[in-house]
Amino acid sequence: MIYLDYSATTPIDDEVLMRYVHVEKHAFANANSKHFLGMKAHAEISDATEKIAELLKVDPSEIIYTSCASEANNTAIKGVALKYPNKKHIITSALEHSSVVAPLYYLQQNDYVIDMVNLDEHGRFDLHHLESLIKEDTLLISLVAVDSETGIRQPIEEVGKLAKNKKVLFHCDITQALGKCPIDVSDIDLISCSAHKIYGPKGIGLLVKRKGVSLVPLIHGGRSTTSFRSGTPQNALICAFAQAMELAFWNMETRIQRAKELRTFLVNNLSLFDKISINSNEFAIQQILNISVRGIDSDEWVMKFSQKDICISARSACSGKENFSKSVYAITKDNGRATSSLRISLSHLTTMDQLRAFLDVLEDFLKEMGE
User: For 2-9+251-361, which CATH superfamily applies?
Assistant: First the structure.
Protein backbone atom coordinates (compact mmCIF):
# COMPACT_ATOMS: atom_id res chain seq x y z
CA MET A 1 0.00 0.00 0.00
CA ILE A 2 1.25 3.47 -0.94
CA TYR A 3 -0.33 6.31 1.01
CA LEU A 4 -0.01 9.77 -0.59
CA ASP A 5 -2.97 11.48 1.06
CA TYR A 6 -1.36 12.93 4.19
CA SER A 7 -3.22 16.22 3.81
CA ALA A 8 -6.50 14.38 4.35
CA THR A 9 -5.26 12.73 7.53
CA THR A 10 -2.15 11.12 8.97
CA PRO A 11 -1.45 7.86 10.82
CA ILE A 12 -1.00 8.38 14.53
CA ASP A 13 2.62 8.47 15.67
CA ASP A 14 3.65 5.61 17.98
CA GLU A 15 4.81 8.00 20.71
CA VAL A 16 1.54 9.90 20.47
CA LEU A 17 -0.48 6.70 20.70
CA MET A 18 1.52 5.58 23.74
CA ARG A 19 0.83 8.93 25.39
CA TYR A 20 -2.88 8.60 24.64
CA VAL A 21 -3.06 5.07 26.09
CA HIS A 22 -1.09 6.03 29.20
CA VAL A 23 -3.38 8.96 30.05
CA GLU A 24 -6.53 7.01 29.16
CA LYS A 25 -5.46 4.25 31.56
CA HIS A 26 -3.94 6.24 34.40
CA ALA A 27 -5.62 9.67 34.33
CA PHE A 28 -9.08 8.82 33.00
CA ALA A 29 -11.10 10.64 35.67
CA ASN A 30 -13.17 13.73 35.03
CA ALA A 31 -10.65 16.57 35.28
CA ASN A 32 -13.22 18.68 37.11
CA SER A 33 -13.70 16.14 39.90
CA LYS A 34 -12.24 17.16 43.27
CA HIS A 35 -10.82 13.75 44.27
CA PHE A 36 -7.16 12.82 43.77
CA LEU A 37 -7.69 11.11 40.40
CA GLY A 38 -9.62 14.11 39.08
CA MET A 39 -6.81 16.37 40.21
CA LYS A 40 -4.31 14.11 38.46
CA ALA A 41 -6.30 14.36 35.22
CA HIS A 42 -6.52 18.13 35.64
CA ALA A 43 -2.75 18.33 36.08
CA GLU A 44 -2.19 16.30 32.90
CA ILE A 45 -4.43 18.65 30.89
CA SER A 46 -2.79 21.72 32.40
CA ASP A 47 0.68 20.46 31.48
CA ALA A 48 -0.46 19.64 27.93
CA THR A 49 -2.11 23.04 27.54
CA GLU A 50 1.03 24.82 28.73
CA LYS A 51 3.06 22.86 26.17
CA ILE A 52 0.68 23.70 23.29
CA ALA A 53 0.54 27.36 24.33
CA GLU A 54 4.33 27.58 24.40
CA LEU A 55 4.63 26.07 20.93
CA LEU A 56 1.96 28.35 19.44
CA LYS A 57 3.23 31.34 21.45
CA VAL A 58 -0.21 32.04 22.94
CA ASP A 59 -1.53 32.22 26.48
CA PRO A 60 -2.85 28.92 27.92
CA SER A 61 -6.09 30.65 28.93
CA GLU A 62 -6.75 31.44 25.25
CA ILE A 63 -7.02 27.77 24.22
CA ILE A 64 -10.46 26.22 23.72
CA TYR A 65 -10.44 22.49 22.99
CA THR A 66 -12.90 21.25 20.38
CA SER A 67 -13.66 17.95 18.64
CA CYS A 68 -11.95 19.07 15.41
CA ALA A 69 -10.93 22.10 13.34
CA SER A 70 -14.39 22.13 11.75
CA GLU A 71 -15.97 22.74 15.14
CA ALA A 72 -13.32 25.36 15.89
CA ASN A 73 -14.12 27.17 12.63
CA ASN A 74 -17.84 27.10 13.33
CA THR A 75 -17.30 28.29 16.90
CA ALA A 76 -15.16 31.20 15.74
CA ILE A 77 -17.44 32.37 12.93
CA LYS A 78 -20.87 31.83 14.47
CA GLY A 79 -19.61 32.70 17.95
CA VAL A 80 -18.45 36.22 17.06
CA ALA A 81 -21.49 36.78 14.84
CA LEU A 82 -23.76 36.04 17.78
CA LYS A 83 -21.65 38.18 20.10
CA TYR A 84 -21.45 41.23 17.82
CA PRO A 85 -24.81 41.23 15.95
CA ASN A 86 -24.60 44.86 14.83
CA LYS A 87 -21.81 44.12 12.35
CA LYS A 88 -22.94 42.01 9.41
CA HIS A 89 -20.08 42.10 6.93
CA ILE A 90 -17.50 39.28 6.64
CA ILE A 91 -14.60 38.85 4.21
CA THR A 92 -13.36 35.43 3.10
CA SER A 93 -11.96 33.68 0.00
CA ALA A 94 -12.72 31.00 -2.56
CA LEU A 95 -10.01 28.79 -1.03
CA GLU A 96 -11.65 28.12 2.31
CA HIS A 97 -12.45 24.75 3.84
CA SER A 98 -16.10 23.69 3.77
CA SER A 99 -16.31 24.20 7.55
CA VAL A 100 -15.72 27.91 6.90
CA VAL A 101 -17.85 28.13 3.77
CA ALA A 102 -20.90 26.46 5.34
CA PRO A 103 -21.26 28.70 8.44
CA LEU A 104 -20.69 31.76 6.26
CA TYR A 105 -23.44 30.60 3.90
CA TYR A 106 -25.68 30.10 6.96
CA LEU A 107 -24.98 33.68 8.04
CA GLN A 108 -25.55 34.95 4.50
CA GLN A 109 -29.04 33.44 4.68
CA ASN A 110 -29.51 35.56 7.79
CA ASP A 111 -28.76 38.94 6.22
CA TYR A 112 -24.96 38.93 6.46
CA VAL A 113 -22.95 40.25 3.52
CA ILE A 114 -20.06 37.99 2.52
CA ASP A 115 -17.33 39.37 0.25
CA MET A 116 -14.57 37.35 -1.43
CA VAL A 117 -11.03 38.68 -1.62
CA ASN A 118 -9.35 38.33 -5.01
CA LEU A 119 -6.26 36.24 -5.61
CA ASP A 120 -3.14 37.61 -7.28
CA GLU A 121 -1.30 35.93 -10.16
CA HIS A 122 0.36 33.55 -7.71
CA GLY A 123 -2.89 32.34 -6.15
CA ARG A 124 -2.32 34.39 -2.99
CA PHE A 125 -4.65 36.87 -1.35
CA ASP A 126 -4.57 40.30 -2.98
CA LEU A 127 -3.87 42.52 0.03
CA HIS A 128 -4.83 45.75 -1.77
CA HIS A 129 -8.20 44.28 -2.69
CA LEU A 130 -8.64 42.97 0.84
CA GLU A 131 -8.06 46.43 2.27
CA SER A 132 -10.56 47.94 -0.17
CA LEU A 133 -13.25 45.49 0.99
CA ILE A 134 -13.06 46.51 4.66
CA LYS A 135 -16.03 48.64 5.70
CA GLU A 136 -17.28 50.26 8.87
CA ASP A 137 -19.49 47.26 9.68
CA THR A 138 -16.90 44.58 8.82
CA LEU A 139 -17.03 42.07 11.64
CA LEU A 140 -14.53 39.46 10.58
CA ILE A 141 -11.91 38.43 8.05
CA SER A 142 -11.72 34.63 7.77
CA LEU A 143 -8.84 33.42 5.58
CA VAL A 144 -6.94 30.14 5.47
CA ALA A 145 -3.17 29.91 6.04
CA VAL A 146 -2.51 27.17 3.48
CA ASP A 147 -4.88 26.05 0.74
CA SER A 148 -5.52 22.36 1.40
CA GLU A 149 -5.71 21.46 -2.30
CA THR A 150 -2.80 23.33 -3.89
CA GLY A 151 -0.72 23.87 -0.76
CA ILE A 152 -0.21 27.56 -1.50
CA ARG A 153 0.95 29.41 1.62
CA GLN A 154 -0.96 32.64 2.11
CA PRO A 155 0.39 35.95 3.49
CA ILE A 156 -1.55 35.67 6.73
CA GLU A 157 1.01 37.63 8.74
CA GLU A 158 0.36 40.64 6.49
CA VAL A 159 -3.39 40.02 6.68
CA GLY A 160 -3.13 40.00 10.48
CA LYS A 161 -1.33 43.34 10.55
CA LEU A 162 -3.89 44.86 8.16
CA ALA A 163 -6.83 43.57 10.22
CA LYS A 164 -5.26 44.84 13.44
CA ASN A 165 -4.68 48.28 11.91
CA LYS A 166 -8.29 48.40 10.70
CA LYS A 167 -9.61 47.05 14.04
CA VAL A 168 -11.30 44.06 12.37
CA LEU A 169 -11.25 40.57 13.86
CA PHE A 170 -9.13 38.05 11.96
CA HIS A 171 -9.85 34.31 12.00
CA CYS A 172 -7.42 31.88 10.39
CA ASP A 173 -7.58 28.11 9.92
CA ILE A 174 -3.94 27.03 10.20
CA THR A 175 -4.64 23.28 10.05
CA GLN A 176 -2.64 22.62 6.87
CA ALA A 177 0.22 24.88 8.01
CA LEU A 178 0.65 23.50 11.52
CA GLY A 179 3.97 21.69 11.79
CA LYS A 180 4.54 21.92 8.02
CA CYS A 181 5.90 25.44 7.69
CA PRO A 182 6.91 28.29 10.01
CA ILE A 183 4.00 30.52 10.87
CA ASP A 184 3.61 33.65 13.01
CA VAL A 185 0.16 33.81 14.63
CA SER A 186 0.79 36.87 16.79
CA ASP A 187 -1.70 39.09 14.91
CA ILE A 188 -4.47 36.49 14.54
CA ASP A 189 -7.48 36.86 16.86
CA LEU A 190 -9.00 33.41 16.32
CA ILE A 191 -6.90 30.38 15.31
CA SER A 192 -8.25 26.95 14.34
CA CYS A 193 -6.33 23.67 14.00
CA SER A 194 -6.57 19.93 14.65
CA ALA A 195 -4.36 17.02 15.71
CA HIS A 196 -5.00 14.44 13.02
CA LYS A 197 -3.04 16.34 10.34
CA ILE A 198 0.15 16.16 12.44
CA TYR A 199 0.16 12.44 13.31
CA GLY A 200 -2.14 12.90 16.27
CA PRO A 201 -5.52 11.34 17.05
CA LYS A 202 -8.81 12.18 15.39
CA GLY A 203 -11.46 13.78 17.55
CA ILE A 204 -9.48 16.69 18.99
CA GLY A 205 -8.91 20.21 17.72
CA LEU A 206 -8.62 23.62 19.24
CA LEU A 207 -9.54 27.25 18.84
CA VAL A 208 -7.28 29.99 20.14
CA LYS A 209 -9.42 32.95 21.19
CA ARG A 210 -7.46 36.01 22.19
CA LYS A 211 -8.23 37.58 25.56
CA GLY A 212 -9.68 40.72 24.03
CA VAL A 213 -12.13 38.76 21.88
CA SER A 214 -15.44 37.38 23.09
CA LEU A 215 -17.88 34.95 21.51
CA VAL A 216 -21.07 33.06 22.24
CA PRO A 217 -20.45 29.30 22.70
CA LEU A 218 -22.09 26.82 20.34
CA ILE A 219 -22.43 24.25 23.15
CA HIS A 220 -23.93 25.24 26.48
CA GLY A 221 -24.15 23.24 29.68
CA GLY A 222 -21.57 21.20 31.55
CA ARG A 223 -18.27 22.35 32.96
CA SER A 224 -15.14 21.88 30.86
CA THR A 225 -11.65 23.39 30.51
CA THR A 226 -13.22 26.71 29.47
CA SER A 227 -16.57 28.49 29.61
CA PHE A 228 -16.58 28.76 25.81
CA ARG A 229 -17.06 25.06 25.06
CA SER A 230 -18.95 22.65 27.29
CA GLY A 231 -18.35 18.92 27.65
CA THR A 232 -16.29 16.53 29.75
CA PRO A 233 -12.58 17.31 29.20
CA GLN A 234 -10.92 14.96 26.68
CA ASN A 235 -7.91 14.10 28.87
CA ALA A 236 -6.11 11.58 26.68
CA LEU A 237 -6.90 13.35 23.40
CA ILE A 238 -5.59 16.66 24.72
CA CYS A 239 -2.37 15.09 25.98
CA ALA A 240 -1.90 13.22 22.71
CA PHE A 241 -2.45 16.47 20.78
CA ALA A 242 0.27 18.15 22.82
CA GLN A 243 2.64 15.24 22.17
CA ALA A 244 1.94 15.33 18.41
CA MET A 245 2.43 19.08 18.28
CA GLU A 246 5.69 18.88 20.19
CA LEU A 247 7.05 16.24 17.79
CA ALA A 248 5.86 18.23 14.78
CA PHE A 249 7.59 21.41 15.94
CA TRP A 250 10.79 19.67 17.09
CA ASN A 251 11.14 17.86 13.75
CA MET A 252 9.71 20.53 11.45
CA GLU A 253 12.96 21.51 9.74
CA THR A 254 14.03 17.94 8.91
CA ARG A 255 10.51 16.99 7.82
CA ILE A 256 10.29 20.00 5.50
CA GLN A 257 13.66 19.15 3.97
CA ARG A 258 12.57 15.55 3.41
CA ALA A 259 9.32 16.69 1.78
CA LYS A 260 11.27 19.10 -0.43
CA GLU A 261 13.48 16.27 -1.72
CA LEU A 262 10.44 14.12 -2.46
CA ARG A 263 8.51 16.95 -4.11
CA THR A 264 11.46 17.95 -6.31
CA PHE A 265 11.80 14.35 -7.48
CA LEU A 266 8.10 14.21 -8.32
CA VAL A 267 7.99 17.55 -10.14
CA ASN A 268 11.04 16.66 -12.24
CA ASN A 269 9.45 13.41 -13.34
CA LEU A 270 5.90 14.70 -13.79
CA SER A 271 7.18 17.53 -15.99
CA LEU A 272 8.18 14.94 -18.59
CA PHE A 273 4.52 14.24 -19.43
CA ASP A 274 2.76 16.59 -21.87
CA LYS A 275 -0.70 15.92 -20.45
CA ILE A 276 0.29 16.97 -16.92
CA SER A 277 0.17 20.53 -15.56
CA ILE A 278 1.56 21.47 -12.15
CA ASN A 279 -0.92 23.61 -10.21
CA SER A 280 1.12 24.07 -7.03
CA ASN A 281 3.67 26.87 -7.45
CA GLU A 282 6.72 28.26 -5.64
CA PHE A 283 4.52 29.54 -2.80
CA ALA A 284 3.17 26.06 -1.99
CA ILE A 285 4.37 24.19 1.08
CA GLN A 286 6.59 21.22 0.31
CA GLN A 287 4.11 18.59 1.49
CA ILE A 288 1.39 19.24 -1.13
CA LEU A 289 1.65 18.87 -4.88
CA ASN A 290 -1.44 19.46 -7.00
CA ILE A 291 -1.45 18.44 -10.68
CA SER A 292 -3.96 18.26 -13.50
CA VAL A 293 -4.01 15.48 -16.09
CA ARG A 294 -5.69 16.87 -19.19
CA GLY A 295 -8.80 14.96 -20.26
CA ILE A 296 -9.32 12.75 -17.21
CA ASP A 297 -12.10 12.51 -14.66
CA SER A 298 -10.21 13.07 -11.41
CA ASP A 299 -12.58 11.02 -9.25
CA GLU A 300 -12.31 8.08 -11.65
CA TRP A 301 -8.53 8.28 -11.52
CA VAL A 302 -8.53 8.32 -7.72
CA MET A 303 -10.39 5.00 -7.92
CA LYS A 304 -7.99 3.69 -10.59
CA PHE A 305 -5.05 4.41 -8.33
CA SER A 306 -6.91 2.88 -5.38
CA GLN A 307 -7.26 -0.37 -7.33
CA LYS A 308 -3.46 -0.36 -7.51
CA ASP A 309 -3.26 0.14 -3.71
CA ILE A 310 -2.25 3.79 -4.07
CA CYS A 311 -4.08 6.46 -2.06
CA ILE A 312 -4.28 9.99 -3.49
CA SER A 313 -7.15 12.47 -3.68
CA ALA A 314 -8.92 14.64 -6.21
CA ARG A 315 -9.46 17.48 -3.76
CA SER A 316 -9.94 18.10 -0.05
CA ALA A 317 -11.76 15.16 1.53
CA CYS A 318 -14.19 17.65 3.10
CA SER A 319 -14.89 19.70 -0.03
CA GLY A 320 -17.94 17.77 -1.20
CA LYS A 321 -18.58 15.36 -4.04
CA GLU A 322 -18.70 17.72 -7.01
CA ASN A 323 -16.09 16.83 -9.60
CA PHE A 324 -14.56 20.29 -9.57
CA SER A 325 -11.72 21.87 -7.60
CA LYS A 326 -12.70 25.39 -6.59
CA SER A 327 -9.15 26.03 -5.44
CA VAL A 328 -7.55 25.01 -8.74
CA TYR A 329 -10.09 27.05 -10.70
CA ALA A 330 -9.55 30.09 -8.47
CA ILE A 331 -5.84 29.96 -9.26
CA THR A 332 -5.83 28.83 -12.92
CA LYS A 333 -9.23 30.08 -14.19
CA ASP A 334 -9.21 26.86 -16.25
CA ASN A 335 -12.26 24.58 -16.05
CA GLY A 336 -10.34 21.70 -17.61
CA ARG A 337 -7.62 21.80 -14.98
CA ALA A 338 -10.17 22.22 -12.20
CA THR A 339 -12.03 19.05 -13.23
CA SER A 340 -8.90 16.96 -13.79
CA SER A 341 -6.84 17.78 -10.71
CA LEU A 342 -5.17 15.31 -8.38
CA ARG A 343 -3.59 16.08 -5.02
CA ILE A 344 -0.48 14.20 -3.94
CA SER A 345 0.42 14.92 -0.33
CA LEU A 346 3.76 13.88 1.09
CA SER A 347 5.24 13.03 4.47
CA HIS A 348 8.56 12.27 6.12
CA LEU A 349 7.21 8.71 6.05
CA THR A 350 7.06 8.69 2.23
CA THR A 351 9.86 6.85 0.45
CA MET A 352 11.45 7.33 -2.96
CA ASP A 353 10.51 3.75 -3.82
CA GLN A 354 6.87 4.59 -3.20
CA LEU A 355 7.08 7.60 -5.52
CA ARG A 356 8.78 5.52 -8.22
CA ALA A 357 5.97 2.97 -7.98
CA PHE A 358 3.38 5.77 -8.17
CA LEU A 359 5.08 7.19 -11.28
CA ASP A 360 5.17 3.76 -12.92
CA VAL A 361 1.43 3.35 -12.43
CA LEU A 362 0.78 6.90 -13.62
CA GLU A 363 2.80 6.25 -16.77
CA ASP A 364 0.80 3.10 -17.47
CA PHE A 365 -2.45 5.04 -17.12
CA LEU A 366 -1.18 7.74 -19.49
CA LYS A 367 -0.18 5.12 -22.05
CA GLU A 368 -3.73 3.77 -21.94
CA MET A 369 -4.82 7.31 -22.92
CA GLY A 370 -2.32 7.42 -25.76
CA GLU A 371 0.27 9.63 -24.07
Answer: Aspartate Aminotransferase, domain 1 (3.90.1150.10)
